Amino acid sequence: MRRVTLCGNLGGCGYHYWSDLQAVFSNQAGSFQAGASGFLTTVLPFSPGFVIVAQFRRDVAVSVITRFIVCGVLIGSGVMVAIVLTNSSPSAARVEGSEQAVKVRSMRVPQEPIAREWNGFGTIRALDSATIPAEVVSTVVSIPEGIEVGLPVVAGQVIAQLRAFDYIEAASRVMEQLAEVEAEVARLDTEERVLIERRSVAARDLELSEVDFQRVTDAAAKGAAVAREIDAAEQRRLAARRSVITLEELQSLLPVRRSATTAKRDGLLATHRLALEQVDRCTVTAPIAGLLSEVMVEVGEQVSVGFAVARVVNPARLELRLRIPASCRGRVKGGDRVVINRTVTAEPIEAAVSRISPIDDAATRTMTVFVEIEGESDRIVPGLFVRGTVYEQETVARSVVPRRSVRHQRVMLIEDGRIRSVQAESLFAIAGERPKSGLNDRQWMVLAESLPDGASIVVDGSRVLPDGIAVDPQFMNLSDPDALSTGSTP
Questions:
Q1: Are the CB atoms for 388 and 342 separated by under 8 Å?
Q2: Looking at 273, 290, 308, which one is the last position of a domain?
Q3: The whole model's pTM is what?
C-alpha cells in the first residue's frame, strides 16, 4: 500500500484539503466518515479492487482575509500609478500680466476715405449679335466652304442655300395668271373703243328718227299722212332710243369691270413679288459682320420658318448684365467705376456703369446694371460668367482692418500697453493688397463703426488675450520679416 498527500481548493467552497490517497484492493462501497481531527473523510470507489480515500478540512476566514489583502494591494498600486503620472505631466507656462508683457504683432489703423463696394455676378453678351432663322419651309441643299464655327463672315455672305424649286414654280404660275389678266385688260380697252363708236351711230340714228317722226306728225296735221304712218315713225324713234340706252349702260359698266380686272392684276403682281422674295429667302445670308458662333444645320436637313440656321456675334462691343443687391438702388449711379474679375488670378478689367434697369428682381432681390466693355482682346468673350465690383462715387472716412484680426465680431485694441476688446461689426469686405498697411494680406474688412483715428490693434485675432493684459506691441512694416505672413484666421 502507497500513501499520497494532496492539497487543493474544493470547488470554490472555500475548503482546503489534504488527502491521503490509499490504494486498497477491496470491493467496499463509498462512504463518509467524520474524523476526530475535524477532517471530512470520503471513500470514493475508483475501480473494482481500488478505492480513493480523501479527507477535507474547512477554513473560511483565511480565504476571505487573503482575498481582501490581494484586492487592496492591486487598488493601491493603481492609485499610486495615477498619482505619479499626474505629477509628472508637463503644464503650460503661465505669464502673469503684472509680471511680463506679451509680445504681439500690431498695426495702426488710420481713418481713410473708402468708397462703398457692391459685389455681383453676371454674364457677358455681345451688343451686336444675330441669330439667323430660316424664313421658308425647305431643305438645305448646300453650305458654302468656310462656314465653320469661329471663322469670320461679312454682312451679306451666304451661310446656307435652301431648295427653291417650289417657289420658282409658284412664281411661274403667277406669271401665267397675270398674262391672262393683262389680256382681259386689253379686251376691255377694245370694248370701250367700240362702244364709243356704236353710241355715236346710235345717237345719229336717234336724231334721224326724231326728225322723221316730226315730219310725219306735221304731215298728219295737214292731212297728208295717216295714223299708220305716225305709229311706224314712233316705233323707229323708240328703237333708236332703246339702242342708245343699251350702249350707255354697257359703257357705264366698263369702269367697274376695269377696276375689278386691275385689282386682280395688282393681286397677282403682289403674289409674284412674294414668290420671288421666297426664292431669295432660300439663300440664307449673314445680316452683320462678325464671327460664327454656331452653325445649327447640315446638308439635307429640313428646316421650317423660324428654325435657327446659324448665329453671328461681333465681339468688338460687349455688355455685362451685372446683378447686384437691390439695397444699393439710389446709391449706384451711371458712370460709377466697375472692376470685372474674370478669374481669381486674371488681370481685372476696368469699366463703368452705362445704364441701370428700372425694376428689381423680387425672386433674387437684386437689381441689374449694364456695363459696356470694349472687346479688344480674348480675355473676355460673350457667355463668360464673371464677378463684378461696383464702387460708389461718394467716399466716407472709415476704418479698414485685416480680416484675420476680427474674431467673433470683436477686435483687440491696444491702449496704454494693455488689451481692450471692442465690438467690430463688418460693413463690407474688400480684397486686394494695401501697401501702406505694412501687411501682405489681401482680405480686409471695413468696420461699420470706425475705430479712433490711428488706433493700434492686434493683427492676429486668433490669439486669446484677456482684457487688461499687458502687451508689447510689435508694429508691422515692410522691412519686418513677419510682415510677409499672409495667413488669415477669421
A1: no
A2: 273
A3: 0.55
